[in-house]
Amino acid sequence: MGLSLVQSRVLLGLDALQVTVEVHMANGLPSFTLVGLADVEVKEARERVRCAIQNAGLEFPHNKRITVNLAPADLPKDSGRLDLPIALGILAASGQIDGARLADYEFAGELSLSGALRPVRGALAMALALHTARVDSRLVLPPSSAEEAALVPGAQVYRAVHLLDVVRQFAPEGAVAAPDASLGDEGWARVSPTPAREGEVLADLADVKGQAGAKRALEIAAAGGHSLLLVGPPGAGKSMLAQRFAGLLPPMSTDEALQSAAIASLSGRFDIRRWGQRPTGSPHHSASAVALVGGGSPPRPGEISLAHHGVLFLDELPEFPRSALEALREPLETGTITISRAARRAEFPARFQLIAAMNPCPCGYLGATLRVCRCTPDQVSRYQGKLSGPLMDRIDLHVEVPALPSHELLGAPAGEATSAIRARCTEARERAKVRQGKSNQALNGGDIDVQVRLEPSAAKFLNSAAAQLGWSARGTHRTLKIARTIADLAGSDTTALGHVAEAMQYRRTLKNA
After folding, report:
1. Domain membership flag for residue 165
2. If pLDDT is split at 50, 70 and 90, which confidence band does 466 have?
3. What is the DSSP letter of 287?
4. Which domain holds residue 18?
5. What's the chain's average pLDDT?
6. What is the pLDDT of residues 307-352, one digit of tens each?
7. Which of 47, 88, 249, 418 is least surrounded, with the fewest CB atoms within 10 Å of its CB?
8. Order of strands across the sheet with 138-141?
9. E strand spans, 307-401
10. What is the mean pLDDT of residues 348-374?
11. Would the pLDDT of 383 be above 70?
């Protein structure tokens, strides 16, 4: 009979690599063979494709020897995204559709037994791959997946609801209309980009009474992209403050929104209603290291990657498994996570803002004025020792959140609104972006020397204090980054002594009983 070629893509980490579905049909003992390092889900496509073609009223060539090759042969393929390309390859090889017209398209979609198309993971990654490589190709995707892919600027995306919707578009000229042609072409449409939605209405920071020091730390963290640890007794408002942090961050750029949405799409968690909104993750403290940083086979992104360009809130920080917390050290420093397995290696972005909260001791009342702590020094030491020195050194801001007495809580006026603080944070971030092209948190050693613009008196004070406190080089550099952010909030071109002095207050370690 013939040979047909259909283009598609499979996911390897965050990359969508091109796959050519080659279908050869010949006389011989009837069979349906699928080769090309296909996983179980892909091999099961033989039954889904056969039933979908028959139930759509099309002809499946039972009396032919069908061989489907997924090239390149050494690239692993998983999921049901290749169902639609395989079905179209069979129809093209048997002459039911025009195979030559398929060359300008790429297809992906899982087939139900009735021929309806189901969404697939990573549609946005496919469109991004075409956009990055500047490939002038059109994507044909199921509903929901097509709306995802259309978010990429310049993408040519078509939505198909049923296998017959695709067959009608590529039927040979002069051919008789496909079965059920009376249904019309409503199932086939060019998808337009979805406009950015207005930001989600988040809880207002004005609801938190008192806690001026913690609010100031939240403002600095939002303005410079810094990580933050809140330490205080139960009920002091640590979680309440953390839940309102996302509202202080500036709006996402188009590139940031696409990267964040691509990771969510890869995990099957993308929601078009949250397009353009910063992701916020808050995993339970029973989460494993794999759940936090990613893993599995094939490698999947973890919570830190799903929070890319957003916020990761870890409540009850010492209760997390030590292996999970230690796995955060490298991503906090580099903004990426590389997952290596015997057969695969994948790299995911993880530029997130860590907001953590913890009690100072097992009972929670160490240093509190309202209740007495009953923990022994050994218990306190063991509890705080769950957080290693290298991990604490990578958290920029350490802030105490004291409990407020009832008369202060009930009589205190409402605090400053989130919108006013966000305006200051956005202005400070823009000032840093104009100066150095990135946030202060992302500055490296060489950039710090040039961009911080430290005044001589401030440099002398910092050198003396760092020597007395025994800070590491990383701790000193992080203090300089915080001081630069404070200077940006103040609208200062240089980092003065007062900015450094305030920054040093946020580098205090936990105090033992």
Report:
1. yes
2. confident
3. -
4. 2-190
5. 89
6. 999 999 999 999 999 999 999 999 998 999 998 877 678 889 999 9
7. 47
8. 31-35, 65-71, 15-26, 2-12, 105-107, 138-141, 157-160, 188-190
9. 311-314, 336-340, 345-349, 353-358, 397-400
10. 91
11. yes
Q: Taking residues 124-141, what's their average pLDDT?
A: 90
The Cα-based distances of 262 to 14, 17, 308, 352 in angstroms read: 8, 14, 10, 15
* Cα 362 to Cα 364: distance, rounded to the nearest angstrom: 5
Regarding beta strands 300-301 and 294-295, do their DSSP bridges make them parallel or antiparallel, or are they unpaired? antiparallel
CB 10 within 8 Å of CB 86? no
> What distance lies between CA 252 and its chain's CA centroid?
13
pLDDT at 367: 82
User: Is 383 strand, coil or helix?
Assistant: helix
Nearest to 405 by CA among 250, 262, 233: 233
In a domain, 132, yes or no: yes
Instruction: Give the C-alpha separation, 86 to 94, whole Å.
Output: 12
Tokens 């049923």 found at:
162
pTM for the structure as a whole: 0.86
C-beta of residue 94 within 8 angstroms of C-beta of residue 50: no
The length of the chain is: 513
Q: Which two tokens stand for residue 279?
A: 């992701």
Is residue 471, in this structure, part of any structural domain at all? no
Regarding whether 218 and 97 lie in a shared domain, the answer is: no
pLDDT of residue 182: 46
Cβ neighbours around 273 below 10 Å, total: 8
**Beta strand 336-340 pairing with 345-349:** antiparallel
- 176-228 pLDDT tens trace: 544 554 445 678 999 987 665 555 556 788 888 888 899 999 999 999 999 99
Separation in Å, CA 5 to CA 68, 138, 197: 10, 15, 39
Q: Mean of the pLDDT values across residues 276-292?
A: 92
Same-domain pairing of 19 and 166: yes
Count CB neighbours of 469 within 10 A. 14
Q: Is the peptide bond before 72 cis (omega within 30 degrees of 0)?
A: yes
| Judgement on whether residues 129 and 62 belong to the same structural domain of the protein | yes
Within this chain, do residues 391 and 244 fall inside the same structural domain, yes or no? yes
**368 and 333 part of one domain:** yes
DSSP character string of 170-217 = TPPTTPPPPTTGGG-STTEEEPPPPPPPPPP-PPPGGGS-S-HHHHHH
87 falls in which pLDDT band (50, 70, 90)?
very high
316 Ramachandran zone, left/alpha/beta (phi>0; psi -120 to 50): left
Does residue 263 sit in the same domain as residue 363?
yes
**Cα 72 → chain centroid:** 28
